Amino acid sequence: MRQRHIFGTVFTVEAAIAGAVFLAVLGLLAWTLLRHRGGHPPARAAERAERPRLEAYYVGALAAFAVFLVAWTAWQNHREHPAAGPRPLRVDVTGFQWCWTFRYPGSPAHRSVTGTCKGRDMPTLVVPAGRTVQLRLTSRDVVHSLWVPGLRYKTDAFPHHVNTLTLTLDRAGRWRGRCAEFCGRRHHTMDFWIKAVPPRAYDRWAHGGTATA
Amino acid sequence: MTVAPPARPRPDDSGRSVPPGGWLGWISTTDHKRVGLLTAGTSLVLLLLMGVLALLMRAQLARPEETFLGPHLYDQVFTVHGSGMIYLVMTPFALGLGVYLVPLQTGAPGIALPRLTLLGYWLYAFGALTLLAGFATPTGAHAAGWFSYPPLADAEFSPGTGSDLWIVGVCLAVTGAILQGWAVLWTILRRRTRGMTMLRLPVFCWAMIATCLMVIGAFPALLAALTLLAAGRADASLFASNAWNIGYQHLFWFYGHPVVYVMFFPYLAAVAEVLAVFCGRRFFGYRGTVLFLLVFAALSMSVWGHHMFATGQAANDYYSLTSIALLVPAGVEYFGMLGTVLGARPRPRTPMLFALAFIPQFLIGGLTGIMVGTPVIDYHVTDSYFVVAHLHYVLFAGSAFGLFAAVYFWFPKVTGVLLDEGMGRLHFWLLVAGTNLTFLPMFALGYLGMPRRVSTYAAFDGFGTLNLLAGIGAAFLAAGMAVFVVNVLRTLHARRLGRARPAGDDPWDGHTLEWAAPSPPPRLNFPADRPLPPVTSFAPLLDLKHREGGRA
Lengths: 213, 552
Ligand code: HEM
Ligand SMILES: [Cu+2]
Ligand SMILES: [Cu+2]
Known about the structure:
Chain A: The chain crosses the membrane at residues 6-34, 55-75. The complex is a heterodimer. By secondary structure, chain A is of the alpha+beta class. Chain A has helices at residues 2-35, 52-80, 199-206, and strands at residues 89-96, 99-103, 112-114, 124-128, 132-139, 144-148, 153-157, 163-168, 173-179, 192-197. Helix content of chain A is 33%, strand content 27%. In chain A, helix 1 (2-35) packs antiparallel against helix 2 (52-80). Residues 1-16 of chain B have low confidence and may be disordered. By secondary structure, chain B is mainly α. Classes of the chains: A alpha+beta, B mainly alpha.
């Protein structure tokens, strides 16, 4: 959930700044256009084409603002990717045209989930709530991308390469996952579920039982 | 002044021979105005065609679980729409505008490297035909998206001639752009008239300098990427290694980001010229604008990785830094535009309306660009409709509005007659309504989780209403474009019949040298019996008017 919170903060702040800048520019434009409407033309349009000092201050302010944004968002970004910590649960995720396989190398029953992503046959990635999960992402054919819109997180799955992604889901629940990188004819159906269950339920499931949240 | 009869043969630049008239004269011309018109005209026709493909997509997405195109055809349509708009419409139009205007604005009798310029047009035209020919092949056109990442675009996952044609077509078109970029750059550097120092070049010429530097510096990377792709299609084992898969992405975006500015600077500059002319004053902050255009171009070469945050294989902090740093030069350009308008009393003619709308609309694209350049946000929104909204605010609500400002502004220079003002306004208002209705809902769609490049979505996704709104917006856009086409055809028809009212050489009280030439300009641009006005600043005609009016 950490990703979702950090996204929420950064998105809100940046959207608010963007909205303020947009309204300011729009306001300035509207004000000039309306002010001179119908009235006399301004006695004489200002001739001055340069204001070097004003521009220098303005560039300074822009640069300071850019530095703030970069530093602050980079800090948030690093908060989003904490070290995996002790004993994360490892899941090997493989994308393929056009569905997913989730393998649990640490599970006593060697659980592995897959599907066809046709109709209702969508695979479910089961994870324990509250525990750090490390997804090791790869692909069997073309580039795919694992995206869980509700958790605001996405990472690409490449062939011949493993990307890792560390997540902790604080509470039990079920979210829709999708493929975000265009991967061919059935890209639009390449969906899955990610389901967080209480740790006990997860253990039962890892031993071969069913998972109920 | 009467309207000049079409195609009167005149001695050619070198004075050697009389060029042929008629259509042969057009396709073998070394007159920069004709090459410029061929380039820009071809790209306008392709704009309409790509617009039809856009309508097909919007129609399919207007309702959930609609499949009239079918997934494979949908993939071809978005691939050709995206690649067409970028490689065949916005880039060539920008360069065509440069080919037409730069010699006139610098007071030159012709373009440097005229034959290369013409060759550039031919490469572009054949490239466009080649790319579109994909639709006629049994497996259809290319369908792997305009960035065509391997291995999806290799021979195993994208078999078929359509993909080969796409590679060849894009390579031809891009080579044509590089040639025209060289010619325009060389004209500005070497063929300026007396008194036209570098700091007296019009803003548009400076924007073309920055543009051409990016074309020359970055476009070869696309040729390299496509060569790599072609090699991989011949020998599939090439992409059996992550190095080449990720390597292609780096090469591609090294071209792919600068091209965004190639599709922005010339339009921004057209808007700048229009704003200054219709406010009746000098463009504000000229030196800052020029300096920061160059800074912009230089920085643009180091931001490609922000398209790759989610790959996990790019230095995200670094690319975030360079991307967000772009807000400084962008802010300076906005400062200039606003400073020009503030306090003035603009004349609200059609070109000015498009130029004014450009300011807030492009700003939406720019501000959301900062958001997309922030990794934390990008992890969620990349490859979603948020990005589709962002890129259309940049390319359509921004650049295309600049494009129309340019068309309405320079049409009387090119043809000697004005487009109809009433229809121009109708076109404008339909486009404003349509643009925002089409693309604003897409931000929400992306935020809510709709991936891009999906041929349909499920009813329970809840994307139906917003997509329907976007579809209605697209209908407004189509109506607006129909008005534009009718306006242009009707005006040209009236001109041919000699019924159009001549516009005169300088209908808008222009500032730059092209308005001192006759409309349309003769073969060598400035007739000998009409000396060029002295060039005393970047707005020589304005200086002249002030002197005559005893004001300066
Ligand atoms: C100057 C005008 C335009 C330009 C430069 C442009 C450019 C693009 C580009 C580059 C793409 C990405 C294609 C891809 O990712 O492969 C795209 C996609 C798309 N465009 Fe446009 N476009 C323009 C106008 C329009 C209009 C007017 C509409 C709607 C009526 C539209 C609708 C779409 C749609 C629905 C997509 C698919 C998005 C996706 O699935 O990725 N475009 N366009
Ligand atoms: Cu996929
Ligand atoms: Cu996909």
